[in-house]
């Protein structure tokens, strides 16, 4: 295991330009990727045989995710743990509108972070609610490491459940189907904690990074 606790992370511009579309992001990677399909929002249309409003659910607010035990170390394994934590935090802020920790741990240059914040703030500042859209990640693997910037890129397989957006009156105003694919999360170690640098989705995986054992 390569330890990197002595490293200091430096902010960087995102290698991928991420644009939030509903649940996850669609993005073109500079390494030959292409835009991944994101969920397509639709607006419910009322007819004479349909009610114009359906009451929103009253879900139990999820608990804020706990940081992993490896949070204060800078190893490859800790980077994977940190990336998984940020995906849990993403689910939490979308379900609750609580952006305090998201803001504290987002790189100022992270467009994915800013887009997520803007979307969540837009819904919850108007007393709306996002229901569903939970992103589940598996198979975390390091796919890149930039030593001069001290940034790890971690890839997961993901699935996102269908999403419904409700307005302040409990009316379903938009929906999005569930999606699957691969998500790349870039994290930087800041000496005693991790920061979220960017996030991006893909429809094809990137090969894992091969480390020399010598």
Walk me through this protein's architecture.
Helix content is 19%, strand content 29%. With 214 residues, it is of the alpha+beta class. The protein has one domain: Nuclear Transport Factor 2, Chain: A (Roll). The strands form three sheets. Strands 4-5-8-9 form a four-stranded antiparallel beta sheet. A hairpin with a 4-residue loop joins strand 4 (135-146) and strand 5 (151-160). Helix 1 (76-96) runs parallel beside helix 3 (111-125). It is globular. Residues 1-41 and 43-53 have low confidence and may be disordered.
Task: Record the SSE blueprint.
Blueprint: E1 19-21, E2 24-26, H1 76-96, H2 100-104, H3 111-125, E3 129-132, E4 135-146, E5 151-160, E6 163-166, E7 172-176, E8 179-189, E9 194-202
Antiparallel strand pairs: 1-2, 3-6, 4-5, 5-8, 6-7, 8-9
Helix pairs in contact: 1-3
Brief synopsis:
With 214 residues, the protein is an alpha+beta fold.
Largest sheet: 4 strands, antiparallel
Q: In which range does the helix fraction lie? A: 10-25%
Tally of distinct domains: 1
Main-sheet strand order equals 4-5-8-9
Q: What's the Cα radius of gyration?
A: 18 Å
Low-pLDDT segments, ≥5 res: 1-41, 43-53
Oligomer designation: single chain
Query: What percent strand?
Result: 25-35%
């Amino acid at each position: 295991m390569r330890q990197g606790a002595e490293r200091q992370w430096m902010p960087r511009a995102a290698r991928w330009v991420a644009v939030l579309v509903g649940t996850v992001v669609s993005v073109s990677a500079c390494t030959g990727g292409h835009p991944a399909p994101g969920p397509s929002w639709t607006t419910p249309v009322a007819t004479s045989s349909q009610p114009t409003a359906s009451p929103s659910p009253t879900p139990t607010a999820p608990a804020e995710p706990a940081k992993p035990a490896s949070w204060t170390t800078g190893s490859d394994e800790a980077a994977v743990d940190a990336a998984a934590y940020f995906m849990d935090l993403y689910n939490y802020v979308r379900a609750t509108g609580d952006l305090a920790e998201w803001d504290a741990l987002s790189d100022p240059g992270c467009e994915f972070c800013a887009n997520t914040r803007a979307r969540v703030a837009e819904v919850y500042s108007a007393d709306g609610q996002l229901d569903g859209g939970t992103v589940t990640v598996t198979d975390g693997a390091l796919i890149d490491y930039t030593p001069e910037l001290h940034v790890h890129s971690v890839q997961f397989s993901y699935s996102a459940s269908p999403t419904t957006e409700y307005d302040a009156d409990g009316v379903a105003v938009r929906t999005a189907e569930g999606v699957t694919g691969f998500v790349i999360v870039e994290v930087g170690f800041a000496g005693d904690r991790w920061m979220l640098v960017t996030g991006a989705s893909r429809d094809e995986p990137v090969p894992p990074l091969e480390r020399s054992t010598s």
